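1st attempt posting a full record on here, be nice pls
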Amino acid sequence: MAGKKSTAHGGASTTPDAILAAAERLFAEGGIGAVSNRRIAEAAGAANHFAVGYHFGTKENLVLALMRRHIDGMDRLRRSAAEELAGSSDPRGFVAALVRQLPAYLATLQPPTYAARFALQTLTDPSWLDIGLRESATSADEALRGGLRAALRGNDLGITSDVLQARVTALRVLLPSVCAEHERLGSRSRFRSWDAVADFLEDTGCGLVLAPVVAGKRRKATRNAGS
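the predicted structure (as tokens):
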């Protein structure tokens, strides 16, 4: 993506930014629960071991600050996608918009990045999962998911609202998983770029979300066989 790279992960000139950068790296590599505020302060180069508490109050506030920084950055891309798709009846377009925003946002960050691995930690740690889902449920995200629901209304694939919700939830874990692996491997990744990651996620996401429901096909086959 064109434009100036963000310096959110490196070259932090203020203590709060240094703490955020250090915390994200440590959380990404070791898990949120395993990292103490003291260790974060030391990694940030703070002379005061209580620097995290001084600037953020609690560890939860620190994690929320990291979440919101990335969600705000990605939400700008979501809003643009939602505006472009307004009134569309193409479900693939909405799935593509839902999955491409994360790699597109990660491409704007100055490497090395830890944002995808941090996001994966928040979604796989039960104590942070609900908070992460709540924070990411922005109006732009809801507009895209609502557009997808509308595009699939009355579909003949057997995709009910419950099935769709379960598939979108699975998609939320798939996205940071793939992005985290690309982020971790760097030049050793099978993907050449974040655009290539986005292409893979679009194909995989559409396959996951828009596949016919097997149970529905079996019921239909059984009804046809008995008629």
